Amino acid sequence: DVKVTQSSRYLVKRTGEKVFLECVQDMDHENMFWYRQDPGLGLRLIYFSYDVKMKEKGDIPEGYSVSREKKERFSLILESASTNQTSMYLCASSPSFGRAYEQYFGPGTRLTVT
Amino acid sequence: SQKIEQNSEALNIQEGKTATLTCNYTNYSPAYLQWYRQDPGRGPVFLLLIRENEKEKRKERLKVTFDTTLKQSLFHITASQPADSATYLCALDPGGYQKVTFGIGTKLQVIP
After folding, report:
1. Residues facing B19 on adjacent strands
2. Residue-range domains of chain B with CATH
3. Is a pLDDT exceeding 70 seen at residue A100?
4. Residue A79: how many CA atoms within 13 Å on its side-chain side?
5. What is the predicted pLDDT for the residue at A102?
6. Among the listed residues A90, A83, A89, the one whose alpha carbon sits nearest the alpha carbon of residue A104
7. Residues A33-89: tens digit of each pLDDT
8. How many domains does chain A have?
9. In 3-state terms, what secondary structure has residue A85?
10. Which residues of chain B have a CB within 8 Å of the CB of A43?
11. What is the distance between the alpha carbons of residues A45 and B28, in angstroms, rounded to a whole number?
12. Mean pLDDT value of segment B24-28
C-alpha cells in the first residue's frame, strides 16, 4: 500500500513564525503536491513537484515556498505565518505525469496560526 | 474561467437506496475525471477514474458516468450503507503535465 505521511496532525504556531510541514512518501512516486483545504473552498493547490529539486507554482503559492531535496520528501515552508494561513494542509503523491494516475493523500496537518 | 460544480448541499439518503452525486464543469476539457472519498479530518482516498472516451466505469457498488457533451459526471452508489457516509470529491485531470483541479465535494449521509 502507498503510504504518505505528514510530520504533524495538529500544529499551533504564532504569527510571524517560520513553519515547516514535512511530507514523506514510500512508493518512489515522481510527483508530489501540497494543498490546503478550507470550508467552502475545497482543495487548492499551493505547489507541486514532478522531480527532485523541481517545483511548480499552483493556484495559491503566495506566502509559501517548498523544497524537494530527495525524491521521497516534499516540504512546505511558511516563511512568516499569518492567521489567514490557518487551514488543513494535505500532501499527496502520484506516479509520473503523462498517464492517468490517481493521487495518494496523507492524513493532513491542521495548522492554527494565532 | 474554469469552474467545477458539485452539490454543496448535503445529500441525505435512506439505507439501501442508490445515491447519485453530480459533478458539472465549464470551460474545461478534461482527459480524465476522478472521484475521491474524504472522511472528516482525513485526506481524500481515490475511488474511480474514467477517461474521456469512456461512458461508464464500475467498481463493486460504485458506478461513474462521464458525458463530455453535457460536461457532467454522475457518481452512483447502489445499495447504500451508513458506512458510505462521507464527502465525495470529483477531480478533473486535463492529462499531460497539467495539474488536477478538485471540486469542493458533496457530503453524503446514509440514514439507517
Report:
1. B77
2. 3-111 (2.60.40.10)
3. no
4. 7
5. 86
6. A90
7. 999 999 888 899 999 998 898 899 999 999 999 999 999 999 999 999 999 999 999
8. 1
9. helix
10. 44, 89, 102
11. 17
12. 88
